[in-house]
Amino acid sequence: MTDQAAPAEAAPVKLETGSTINPKRLQPLRKLVPFMLRYPWRLSGTLLFLLVSTIASLAIPAMLGGVIDQGFVAQNLDSITRYGWLIIGIAAIMGAASGARFYFISSLGERVLADLRQSVFAHLLRLDARFFDTHRVGELTSRLNGDVAMIRGAVGSSFSLALRSMVTIIGALTMMLLTSPVLTIAVVVAAPAILVPVVTFARRLRGMSRKTQDALADLSAMATEMLGATRTVKSFTQEKVQSELYDRHSEESYRAETRRLFARAALVAMVIFLGTAALVGLVWWGARSVFEGSVTAGQLAQFLVYALMASGALTNVSEVLGSLQSVAGATERLSEILATEPAITDPAEAKALPVPPLGTVAFENVSFSYAPGGMDPVLSELSFAVGAGETVALVGASGSGKSTILSLLQRFYDVNAGSIRVDGIDIRDVRLAELRRRFAYVEQEPTIFAGTVAENIRFGRPEATDAEVEAAARAALVHDFVADLPLGYRTVVGERGVTLSGGQKQRLAIARAILKDAPILLLDEATSALDAQSERLVQMALEHLMQGRTTLVIAHRLATIRDADAILVLDNGRIIDQGTHDQLVSKGGRYAELARLQFRLDDVAAR
Ligand SMILES: Nc1ncnc2c1ncn2[C@@H]1O[C@H](COP(=O)(O)OP(=O)(O)OP(=O)(O)O)[C@@H](O)[C@H]1O
Q: What stretch or stretches form a coiled coil here (predicted)?
């Protein structure tokens, strides 16, 4: 195929509001079509009622022409009565069809919105850790809310209005042509005389409107930042300076807005003047045609109404196409998410993990890098094995790769080389859900969800009974504390609920892990110091949790280290030493130094 044979690029269509509509930029809207096609009834209802209501609205001016010619001019009251009834009948059809169209399109919009929101959310949750490493959560939630809401507006109103206006324009122009071809040509030739100045002016207005919006965004960004840091502002006694700065921004925004308002007022004046002048011209031209006998008075009246309908619809289309363009942007962003495939998926042919579980873990020559292509390896040829029921502690300086080991084990990322086995099976051969069911993960800073205490404990096992929840809470030593809360296990915690202390959060997370009852425990001990009482409670809760389970723990507590069957000392993604605490201490070297710094050995020795 030669270049010339390629389809020519559609030229941008310029519209009277001054926006430049490039049809290519509206293409992403096509992605919404499959969502709409899922509901063929609502879609066909919308199209049917759209057609009926538009045809009915186009019929009324023709009736009006009849009333004038056959009623007023012919002085025939019967004819006026007949037309009157006809118009009432058409109005009834138009009303019913418009109502039905509104209902069908709005409910279709809501349906598409809900489906889209649900599929984007479900899809986001399926995406792998690497995706979340490279996308800001704020941006994703704004897509989920803002972009989806924008699309709702499109399907529910903009789409409908654009469609209705386009059908109206075609219908009204056809009726104009049928009524008087000469007057129609006159209108089409004269239209640019009004459109060109309005378009030029409106485009300038649009530029100004963007400026005022930017000024407003600056203002609100500044307010958000300062109000979020009132303590810092007060502490540095910056109240006056900052409010003066705010005033300056605010004044700028005010001035930009006034300039825009002035221009808008001028535009309105221009539109009113040019529009009325054009109408007068049209009436004059029309009246001449009536006197000449080329059209009747009724036809002129009917023509004028069609011309008004067409110009109204043209204005609507231009406005709506502008907003559809931003909707196309929103659709594109959402379809990007939907098109992103998770890199970590279930194997095509999954192997089953042994039942009952053994609880063994083995890393064999594992190398891993967060960067693409194995650059800057975080783990290098790492090998170790954890036997059933053993506790292995991972220690090492910050950034040595301890958390990465726990992430790889849960297959949040895939290794670059080597393999990881759980119960003797390579984790890449196991279904993700089955693999992850084998682990109970207690994070360093556990996530407490906005919900009740019971819901938080049940997170990994929603079907657990109240008695099981309570038993887990007792084992994690949170029961007494929960019992003192105003609504017990039904007390709402987390965001906008009761605030929990660090130790309480950890024990709640331990209760959650106990209830999950997984054979392998992955523990990232908190580094933040708890008070002695809280620390003791957490320690006891952990002992309950670790009983009979294989445990891999990123250790920050001396007690954990002492009780571990083996300690792996990591440095720069390699195991530089391993053994029990006593063995490693007596050896001296890196571990002894690390232990002294990290586990407050001196404190303990001094006690
Ligand atoms: N999601 C990520 N994307 C890119 N690099 C990461 C990511 N997570 C960790 N790293 C890098 O990998 C290295 C190892 O990090 P890791 O969190 O495993 O260390 P750590 O030993 O657990 O440290 P800490 O004790 O401070 O938690 C660090 O250099 C860190 O910057």
A: none
